[in-house]
């Protein structure tokens, strides 16, 4: 008697467990269907219109689950597929960033399949979006490069890409110049031979030329209006041009959004940054008074921001010590004994043409009378003003800026004092 009862209860427990597992799988299936916009069809002979319809239906998966309306599609769709995966960011076997999608979706969208990105199915591949002149994109992590990259481009004409955010949850664009080598500015710092312009956003980007690999910029989207990234080059100037940009779209709630007013935003707690076209070597161009020109780009005004690390209270900026030209903003570099470059003796606080601003600065624990820095050297300067930002200003007149390079600074953050 007791044995038979025990048997019966074991039996019903098993049935109950099976039902629970069944529904858990079902709910999990609906949940992942709602998250993912890609799914894998079990029956590979299904034709294109069928799989498209299914995939559209799955995008509405959450609504369907809520309304329990089964008239359009079978309720059993979670079991109809062999696996689901979300459209996560992946690293392709070419080391570029991509999006995990079904193989067919990648080729339909002119992506490049760069290896598998899911353990669930071999149909999920890391899709890299690479585009050149005349393209438009709505894909995150699109790469934009000159025709035939990495081969150089001789120049001539304009090469552009238009980036449109898929919806209003996207607020910022970050463009990383993985490679960017254009003709240099004139000796007066004007990008009149080649010019990279980024327009259509809600924030300004200066016109950029010269050597800028490793630099990046942020620009705010203006609603869902497209941003145009355009490289204009003059075929009359012989130069090996080359560029490859990584284009990221950042959601309005992203932790990596740059604060307002920041053209550049550095996340590491310590590191270096430089002005555009900064290279230690002098410009080869003459300026308008016929002497060796500047490398600094004229007409810039922007913020360089550094993310405050946890537990840090102040930040210290210094010249990169291995490079004596790493702070040459105004005055005649050629007229100064090179051993005096990067020393306090040539620093000036009377800065009105080209300068950087470090808010509320201190040097050696003493507050400075001015927050502007120019001349031919920068003493290590610390500030607690937040967000950590250096502003940079250059005017349109570089006549008296002979052989300047710009700035190349290192920064490190200082821990908050222990009480
Ligand atoms: C797969 O679909 C085709 C038509 O779409 C059908 O003829 C075939 O029987 C299906 N196979 C399986 C295993 O469902
Ligand atoms: C694809 O499937 C749909 C729906 O089953 C059918 O109407 C259509 O004729 C099919 N197309 C092809 C090319 O097989
Ligand atoms: C189910 O969907 C059909 C058509 O999509 C609609 O006419 C019907 O009202 C829906 N039923 C429920 C319960 O939502
Ligand atoms: C775009 O990709 C970057 C990684 O490059 C990621 O941080 C960001 O969140 C992605 N944006 C969206 C909207 O998913």
TrEMBL record:
Gene3D superfamilies associated with the record: Spermadhesin, CUB domain (2.60.120.290)
Domain CUB: 133-252
UniProt superkingdom: Eukaryota
InterPro entries noted in UniProt: CUB_dom (IPR000859), CUB_metazoa (IPR058698), Sperma_CUB_dom_sf (IPR035914)
Pfam family, one: CUB
Transmembrane segments: 12-34
Keyword annotations: Disulfide bond, Membrane, Transmembrane, Transmembrane helix
Protein name as it appears in the record: CUB domain-containing protein
Source taxonomy: Eukaryota, Metazoa, Ecdysozoa, Arthropoda, Hexapoda
